[in-house]
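hiii so um. not sure if this is the right channel but i have a protein structure encoded as tokens and i wanna go backwards to a sequence. like what aa goes where. can anyone help
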């Protein structure tokens, strides 16, 4: 018997299916870039949300102070930096009461917690006669364009503000 030599040729129509290493690296790089951009944007949104909460809290405290003044013909007297919550680190909210009248059932704390400006408390100081006051907090967004946003720290200082941007409200 004669042996016939057969040349084996690959079937041209059967390719291996899959991705090349370069294609995979490009997709991973694109996903990494998108993740970085979205994460940076998400952090900024959270900072602005906390700043909005701080501004709302300051306005609520301001309303309570105005109610106090209408009843007592003056604001609460604090001639040194005062932490709204009894001068302690803000861990639980307390009521703002005077002569058994409750002006605010829960005085809010800074949304960043106890590590923030003024140990997590909103800054309050008044003159000795109780005719004027200053309420302040530190904003995280250094680019805040609000009318009451300033780079000037309230005096006396309530601590260091990492962004250098304060939200300061004085009695109207």
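sure thing!! here u go:
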């Amino acid at each position: 018997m004669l042996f016939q030599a057969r040349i084996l040729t690959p079937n041209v129509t059967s390719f291996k299916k899959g991705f090349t290493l370069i294609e995979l690296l490009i997709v991973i790089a694109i996903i990494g870039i998108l993740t970085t951009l979205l994460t940076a944007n998400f952090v900024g949104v959270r900072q602005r949300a906390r700043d909005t909460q701080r501004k709302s809290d300051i306005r609520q405290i301001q309303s309570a102070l105005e109610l106090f003044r209408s009843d007592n013909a003056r604001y609460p007297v604090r001639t040194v930096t005062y932490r709204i919550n009894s001068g302690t680190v803000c861990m639980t909210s307390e009521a703002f009461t005077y002569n058994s009248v409750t002006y605010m059932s829960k005085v809010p704390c800074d949304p960043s917690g106890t590590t923030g400006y003024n140990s997590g408390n909103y800054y309050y100081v008044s003159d000795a006669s109780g005719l004027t006051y200053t309420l302040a907090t530190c904003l995280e967004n250094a680019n805040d364009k609000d009318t009451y946003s300033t780079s000037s720290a309230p005096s006396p200082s309530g601590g260091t503000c990492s962004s250098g941007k304060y939200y300061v409200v004085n009695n109207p």
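oh and The chain has a mean pLDDT of 79.
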